[in-house]
Design brief:
Layout: E1 4-11, E2 14-19, E3 24-26, H1 51-66, E4 72-80, E5 83-94, E6 100-101, E7 117-118, H2 120-132
Antiparallel strand pairs: 1-2, 2-3, 4-5, 6-7
Amino acid sequence: MRESSEILQCSENRIVAVHKLGFVVANAAIDVSNVDQTYNSERVLLLPEDPDRSAAEIREQIGERCGVKPGVVINDSFGRAWRRGTIGTAIGAAGVPSLQDMRGRPDLFDRKLVSTEVATADQLASAASILQNQAGEGIPVILVREFRSVSPDYPAKRLIRSADQDLFR
């Protein structure tokens, strides 16, 4: 409960909660998968306290050590309301356009896009998750090359809908 700001729904084995960071997730994003339980103590994995800040710090450290400032996306597996299965989702980002606003741009037939915003950081997280997998593979980092964008860099926090824009709350 300490990881939640609101409980939206409960069933026998599932809680849908608003995480204290604003994400609507199952079980307040608390995970026991891939956590060492060697000493018979129930240990869980929690989200970073500030995923965007963590991404910025990782980006800075790589810059200092390697002389480059890559875009960094911190991802986690999230379920989706309308589909089965989990998918990689950006919970933190630095140096990448988390959200690309396409509204006002022409489509293929020169009609102006009205509502299209592209969750670029989520797309990168999902692509990385294909390679990382979800079980015991132990692949913590994926390097994506040749991704380019002219959109401004935004933190992943910009991807979260406010409660007044959320059609389910």
